[in-house]
Amino acid sequence: MAPRDESPSRRPEVVVAQPQQDVNIAEERESDIFYITKSKYETLKTLVKCGETSNVATGKVENATISKQDIDELTFPDEIDENEIMIPVDMRGCVEEYEDVEDMIEKLGCVGVVKAFMSAREHFLENEGKKEDCPKEMTAGGWRAVLSSMHV
To answer: Pick from 6, 47, 106, 133: most CB atoms within 10 A?
Structure first.
């Protein structure tokens, strides 16, 4: 397996909505679509729903069964099978803005990142997912092609 290119131009950016003071704020802004690995998302979502603990020292929600590697597999399509399905999420469903996935991990912990993506997925399904021209699921190979074309 080739090492992942983590240069700033290849690292996916994550922009998450600011806390909403008005319910219509998220609806007025353009969607903020990010793609994650469907199978990994389903696995991590189940783990989060089954149990979690809170780290008193850091204030972060943690779960020993969810690691940074799990988050990387969720968010970086570089090292997964070309035919793996990627699903869109709308990051406006989260309550804070982050520079990238690493920033999310630092501030939220791994379980918190999964919860943020759960909120983003729910927001997508309730809003963007109902539109006829909404972003669709795609393969990891297709997503890598999109990322490559954006960085040319």
So the answer is: 47
Closest to 35 measured CA to CA, from 64, 78, 97, 65: 78
pLDDT in tens, 2-56: 444 544 444 455 544 433 444 444 445 577 899 999 999 999 998 888 875 555 5
What span, in angstroms and rounded, lies between the C-alpha atoms of 53 and 34?
A: 27
Beta bridge partner(s), residue 89: 34
- Beta pairing, strands 85-90 & 138-139: antiparallel
Gap between the Cα atoms of 118 and 114, Å rounded: 6
Q: Which residues contact 75 (CB under 8 A, 6 or more apart)?
A: 12, 14, 34, 36, 37, 101
Cα 140 from chain centroid? 14
